Amino acid sequence: MRSTFPPAMHLLSLLITTLIVATALAEQEQQPLLALDRNTTTTTKDILTLQIDEFIEKTIADWNSAGGVGIAVVKKNEDGSWNVETKGYGIAKVDGSKVTEDTLFSIGSNSKLFDVTATGLLVSNESLSPRISWNTKIASIIPEWELSDPVASTESTIIDLMSHRTGLPRHDIAYHETQSAQSLISKLKYLRPSAEFRYVWQYNNIMYTVLSHIPDVLLHVPFTQYVRKHIFTPLGLNATTYSGSIAEETGNLANGFGRDGVNKSEDVLGAGTPRAMPFWNYYGGDDGNIISGAGGVISSAKDVATWLQVLLRQGKNPVTNEQVIPSSVIEKVATGVTLMTSTPPFPEYAPVVYGGGQMRSSYRGHNFIEHGGATPGQVSLPPPLCLYIVADIRIHPGFHTQITRFPFSNIGVAVMTNDDAYGAVFMEIIKWRRLELQQVVADAYAERIQKLRPRPRNPTMPFVPFASLAGTYVHPAYGTLELCAVPSLNLPISQSTPNCKTLINELSLKLPGTLNTSESVPTFFASMDSAWLSHVRLQHFDGNLFNVSGSQSLPIISSDSARMGESQEQRYWAYDATDNAPITIEFAPNSDVVSSDGVSGFGVTGGFWGAREGVEGPVGENAQERAEVWFDRV
After folding, report:
1. What is the three-class DSSP state of 299?
2. Are 396 and 375 contacting, i.e. CB atoms less than 8 angstroms apart?
3. Nearest to residue 16, comparing CAs of 409, 422, 399?
4. Fewer Cβ close by (within 10 Å): the C or N end of the chain?
5. Hey, what's the signal peptide range on this chain (predicted)?
6. What angle separates helix 423-432 from helix 50-62, to the nearest 10 degrees?
7. Is residue 546 within 8 Å of 540, Cβ to Cβ?
8. What are the distances in angstroms from CA 6 to CA 154, 304, 387?
């Protein structure tokens, strides 16, 4: 798909162009937020001008967004002072309040830099006994640590985890926020790797949960308390927190805004019915939860501006000049370890490398360090892989952020938005001041739909009657799924468990629009205990294959009930978390065990495990060998 996007589209992914643009590009009619000639280090004194304000507001409107944007720009002046600008645009909350510099956004995977910085503080702590280093093996620190790959299990170090090279794909669906870190870590050995140890960069949120567990193991101090004491407080990040409840109590926490009922076949950018989304990660309060390290930070444009200055000043508090974070830690986590893209798609780019919670590259000789964030935990993909933003938009409930700095120019910029559907895209447009992405998004969606195979007119039946596929299936890390059959003309149901009766009876309330009663396609639903999904739906495709979609059942929040998880009317809407992803389940017969239904289990394929693009899926002679994730029949 990369070849289908013109070069200008790829340039949109580089936040560097919001700050530094070569002379030839600067001559174009549309200018980015900051323009810097390759031979100079001067910038406009006032970045967020009236002209920029109008452009941002127009962009929000053009993309039919019910939300808004928070922006922070910092630049060190020649006299050593700092130009700091922060501003908000658009709507922050369902009550209509505006985004300001104090509006709080979940920054998603930009939280990882705080996580790995905390690890760096432990590495620098000379009072620890025994001392740890960046090369300390995880198995020597955390007793529960074990991976299915024995080499990765034994040899993985802090550097391996922070740079995403353990061989384990994302496996994001396997965890939920109420789990303990020990529980999640103890189940890693049941997750199938998609690559050999240190073979390829593959993004993995769980490894940052492991890193966030280290302060608890070594100091018996919860991770969030450690970060607050050693990073937030001494740096003056007074509004920044891991607690959704604390953020909500300030009155400044933004609502994420989703779009319900959009017919993308008619208008992929349709506004639909705007829905305020309950905050995605409130479990655990001030002590946080297992998602905190990978994506739990909540912050404002004002605080992020301070954080950018700290990073550019090599760990010093910009007000007191105190060295809060050792400069060696700032440098270490910004140094590339894993190669993300080896061959730049265009001559302007350099290869992209990943350190710890940051990626690093350059554009026309200008070095930049950045990271993206999307909740719950999905990273906004890095340059030059911007096509993922427009061609693979999934599971982004509410917030998107991008934080970038240019260490040799002492410039930093951050953009945060609460638009769920296209925030990651128009966030890039705001930084580029370009308009072409609307057509790119529409074309990418159409291309993805064209790749979907329609169900055969006369599909073959599974190896057992459809009713025999209903029942309970289990995976030691992903948990239990009870497949509940939906009664239809082709699926006679003689009996159902109490849980299934409740689930099916509540479908029209909890998941409106997910069951098409006019169709006679055999269908199953199951509840799922995951931070990413609340339900999965299986619809028969052909033979033993079923297409799978995932949803979150979210309460409809009105301006009178705009608190996390509350809804006075107790009405719900179904958030499409997989958006036409080609996920498939294949059932397999059980020939070794005497069973009345003869079902061994099912395997999930089609990218369910979250391997990076280009990594081949499992191959084998049967469904279990081909499965990214295998569920046994109970």
Report:
1. strand
2. yes
3. 409
4. C
5. 1-26
6. 150
7. yes
8. 45, 33, 11
